[in-house]
Amino acid sequence: MFNLSRLDRSNTSHIAAIDLGSNSFHMIIAKWDNDQLVVLDRLRDPVRMGWGLGSDGSLSEDARIRALNCLEKFGERLREYPSRSVRIVGTKTLRSISDSSQFLADAQQRLGHPVEIISGDEEARLIYLGVAHCIAPKDGKRLVMDIGGGSTEIIVGEGMSPLIKESLNMGCVAITKRFFLDGKVNDKNANKAFIACMQELTPVAEEFIQQGWNQVLGASGTIKAVAKVCAAAGWSNGIVRLMDLEKIVRLYCQHGNTDLKIPGLSEDRQPVFLGGVIVLRALFESLQIAEMMAADWALREGLLFDLKGRLENHDIRQGSVDALASRFHVNMEKAQAVAATALNLLAQVADDWDLNHTEAGKLLSWAARLYSVGLDIAHNDYHKHSAYVVQHVDLAGCSRVEQSHLSVLVLAHRKRFPIKHFPPGNEELIHLAILLRMAVIFHRGKKVEGLPPINLSASKKKIKLQISAAWLEEHPLTFADLETEMRHLDDIGYTLDIV
C-alpha cells in the first residue's frame, strides 16, 4: 500500500508478511542472508473468519472478535517495524465483506500497519511466486494450486513467471459451510459438494489442460495435510494421488461425521478437512492430474519476495503500468514528459507538504502514464474512461486500494476537482492530484516543447507558482488554463498564486 507521508527512517534487516485468510491467519518474519530467505518466526491462528461471513456480506461479531484478537497478538511483534518492511494482505473473505472499512481500520490500529485487500488474480500471482522460489523449476511448465478457506487458486507457469491463473469460488471453509454445516457426512452430500466444485472448474479446465505441464505442486494447509495423512496411512511417501483422495472421502462417509480423527491430521484442521479434500478431488478429476507434490511455501513467502523486489527497486507494479499504457496506445513521449514535470514539482514541495518522495513519486509517475488510457475508448470525458479502466483492470502487484488511488488521480487530472471521490482525510493524495493537474496543463498541447524554469512552493493549502511572464505571454492557452485551475482549486479550499 502506498505510504505517501514521510516514511519512518528507522532501519531493520527483518521483513514480515501476514496473510489474513478465510480459514487461518499466518505471520512470517524473515531476513535476507546472502540473498537467501531465512525464516525467523512463524505464527498461525485458525481464526476461521470465513465461518462468520454471511450471505449478505456481513461479518459476525464472533468472527470479528476472533480476528482482531489474533491481530492484537501479531501486532506486538510488528510495532517497531517500519511500514516499508511489512506487507499484510486480506484474501477471499475480506474481498467479500460488504463494508470492510471499519474492520480494516480496527485491524490497522492493532497491527500498526495497513491491511491490503488483494484480488484473486494477485493472490494467484503471489502464490506462484512463493512456490517457484521454494522448489526449483524443472524444464517446461508447472501447475500450481492453493486451496484456501474461501477460494482456490490455480496457476500454470514456467520458470518464475505465471502464464495463466484463476481464482475460483471454492475453498475448505466455503464447501464445509455449504454442505456439511451440521457435521453430517453421507454419500449424497459428499457427491453434491463434489459436483459443485466440478461446476466451478468447468469454465476454466480446458484452457489449463491445453497449456500442459510437467510438474504439479500444491501449496496450502489442506494439501500439506492431505500429504501427511497419505504418508501416515502408508499409502504413499507424501505424494498425493486421486485414489488416496477417494479413500479419504469414503472414510468420512462411513464414519458419518466431519469429526473423524485420522492419523496425521491435526485437530485444528479437522473441521474443514473434508471440504478441502473434496475441492482437491475435483481439481484432480477436472484437470486430469495424475499425482501432486506438496510445497512448503506459498502466498506468505511470495509476499516476502515481492516486498524484497520493491525494497530493491524491482517493482512489478512498474511493469504492469507500462503494459497497460502500451495496451491502450498511450503516447509515451508525452506521458514521460508529464511525469518528469510532475516529479520536478514534487521534489520542490515534498518538504512543504511532508510527502515521502519515493512512494509519492511512484504513484505520481504511474498516474502520468495512465491518465490518457481512456482516449483509446472515446475522447469525450476520456478521464472518466481512464479512471474506470485503471480501477477495474488487473494490475499485477497492486492491491485494491492502490488501484483506487491511481484511479482517483487519473480521474482528477482535468476539469473540476472531483473531491468527493478522494478518501476522507487523505490530503497527501489531493496534493499529488494537484501536482499532476499542473503538469498536464504545461503539456496540454500536442507538441511537447521545452519548458521554462518552474518554481513551486506550498504551505498547507496555499500554493505559489513562479514562472516566466514572457513565456506565459507566448503561451496564452497555458496561462488561461492556469487561471481556470485557480478557480478549480479555490472550489476545494486551496489558493494558487501565479507570480
Automatic annotation (TrEMBL):
It comes from the Bacteria. Residues 316-485 form the Ppx/GppA phosphatase C-terminal domain. Keywords: Hydrolase. InterPro entries: ATPase_NBD (IPR043129), GppA/Ppx_hydrolase (IPR050273), Ppx_GppA_C (IPR048950), Ppx_GppA_N (IPR003695), PyroPPase_GppA_Ppx (IPR030673). Pfam families: Ppx-GppA, Ppx-GppA_III. CDD domains: ASKHA_NBD_EcPPX-GppA-like. Residues 28-307 form the Ppx/GppA phosphatase N-terminal domain. This is Exopolyphosphatase. It comes from Cellvibrio zantedeschiae. The lineage of its organism: Bacteria, Pseudomonadati, Pseudomonadota, Gammaproteobacteria, Cellvibrionales. The gene is ppx.
